[in-house]
Amino acid sequence: MKAVQFHEVGGPEVLQYGEVEQPTPAAGQVRLRVAASAYNGMRAGFLPIPIQLPHVPGYDVSGTVDAIGEGVTGLTVGDAVIAFLPMDRDGGAAEYVIAPADAVVAAPTSVPLADAAALPSVALTAWQALFDDGRLTAGQRLLVVGAGGVVGKYAVQLAKRAGAHVIATASPRSADAVRTAGADQVIDHTDTDLLDALDGQVDVLLNLAPIEPEQFAADVAAVHDGGVVVSTTAFMATPGDESRGVRAATVFVLPNRERLTELVALVDAGALTVEVTRRIPLAELPALHAEGAAGRIAGKVIVLP
């Protein structure tokens, strides 16, 4: 089968497209015929996750069940599914991929199966950041820094559905999309001081942007006493303020089959929008990584085998 893999971590040049052996599911596993995987940067080695080399990237996947390992129940060949695959194992940038059966859920029926690959890890990240780490509840005020990205727009949608008042920072390019997602106030971070633009403190600050540590520390003043700062930027520490009881939490997204099933239901109910900005063939994935290294990728890109 065709796949993209890397034998060492590094720049886009480490990615190789070619033939690899088709995997066979073991007990508790299923093999998926891949409809699409989603772009991610695992090959750079930035995440603190040990992987076995050579490695096939792509921990978000959609497809159909192609073969079933021993002991698996509740799934049949031909089922349309999505999964957030274990990051330390081979991913979906291939024609076929092995998935733990307990990571697989039925795909949404309201979007094309390939597009559903854009949902798992980013929507789970938004949910975990808001509700597991941020403990956001109805009536609270939320500030999302860097809401113009894919996780940010999921976070805005989920927070509004939960009854929060959402303030978001975005560039002029993404401001309209953030408003459409449900933000009550959008602050242009390119020409406006965040603290000056706020009309009061917030309960939860969710940072999704690679801002300077000094700026991040200053932004904690936006959170009232007893609030929480949550961040997905695992490469730097999340600041809090112990003197005011402001808690700090860094998100390391975890697989959660029950939660992913709930997110699929929200998509099919029209309460959550799956965004796909671009679709590319698998053979072009190394070139896409080169674009990503140059900072030229916007939105969610899916990869078709």
Task: Walk me through the structure.
- The structure is a single chain.
- The chain has 305 residues and is an alpha/beta fold.
- Helices cover 21% and strands 28% of the residues.
- The protein is built from seven helices and 15 strands.
- Strands 3, 4, 5, 6, 7, 14 and 15 form a seven-stranded mixed sheet that branches. The protein has a six-stranded parallel sheet with strand order 10-9-8-11-12-13, with helices on one face.
- Helix 1 (120-133) packs across helix 2.
- The longest helix has 14 residues, at 120-133.
- The relative contact order is 0.16.
Short summary:
With 305 residues, this protein is of the alpha/beta class. The chain has helices spanning 120-133, 150-161, 175-181, 194-197, 213-219, 257-268, 285-293, and strands at 2-6, 15-19, 29-38, 60-68, 80-84, 96-100, 104-106, 141-145, 165-170, 185-188, 202-207, 223-231, 247-250, 278-281, 301-304.
Fold blueprint:
Blueprint lengths: L1 E5 L8 E5 L9 E10 L21 E9 L11 E5 L11 E5 L3 E3 L13 H14 L7 E5 L4 H12 L3 E6 L4 H7 L3 E4 L5 H4 L4 E6 L5 H7 L3 E9 L15 E4 L6 H12 L9 E4 L3 H9 L7 E4 L1
Helix pairs in contact: 1-2
